[in-house]
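Most newcomers find our protein records easier to grasp once they have seen one. A learned vocabulary of local backbone shapes supplies the integers on the structure line. An example says more than a description, so a record of this kind follows:
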Amino acid sequence: MPHLQDSPSSPQMDYEGWRDLLRSKCGRYYSEGIKPVSFSGWVHPINVRGFTALDIGSNAPRVERTYQDVRRDGADHYFALFLTSGQLAMIHNEQAVRLAVGGAALVDSARPVKYFADNGERWNTVSLSLPRQTLVSHLGFEPEGGLCRTGGTAAGRLLFELIRTCGNGGDSALSSADSYMQLAVYDLVGALFAPTEPSPGSRHADKLFARIRHIIKDGCADPDFGPYEVAAEAGISLRYLQRLFTERGSTCTECIYSLRLDQAARFLYRRGSLGARQPLSEIAYACGFRDYTHFARKFRQRFGHPPGAHSESLSGPSDENTAH
């Protein structure tokens, strides 16, 4: 995998400058095992069709983000990380993986992470920042930080090539086509870190389960829609329906609420981006909730903040009095 910039020609930064720029773009990190006077490294921000990528290099043998760092900065992104030179071991989300050149990993900024370099060797990574809520809404599932992929996958090559092209003097000004390019980026991330393929023996059940999810997606806006209706539409018993969900660590009711909340989050995002004042209760009712208080409680449990705060960063401080 080619570098975005060759290490010898990259402007070097002192330790404090490197750390501060990294923290401003990624969250709080610190390094161990090297004295500041011996440190060398660089951080180059890159605009990738409205996303931010970082070309990061260093001779630090260890870089870490702790639970305390996570609590202090509250960063809430994923990072698609590519190793372009050197070797790195990573401990993240209770998984230990080793990255070789060309390999990619998915990093969750809301979880601690440790990187270890081999033999004090200089290393270089390229990290693409991905907003959590938008990525999860697009993929339809919450990917697990710590996933690692070896080099050579088609999705990985295409995604890195997109970053590399922008980093080598491509047009960084946003155009009318960039909204479509951003969707392509999310699709490539989904293809790169998609769940592993099911075993051949479970494919029939997986196809049935996929059809059940489509049934739920089509009907969940109806407040009277529940597991009985799903089983009847799928032509299976309620017991078998619940077994399919239990095997996947969930329940049909949880799936219905999850899809309702996903839809509500998309409506709230649109409400904020348009600066609209649509009552929050209308969004709740449109997504299958009978009671706004129940909706607000479920929403806070899922996303960690009330519905009115979901689009606050886009539309300014929200007024919870518009809920009803």
Summary: The radius of gyration is 22 Å. The chain is about 40% helix and 20% strand. The longest strand covers residues 77-85.
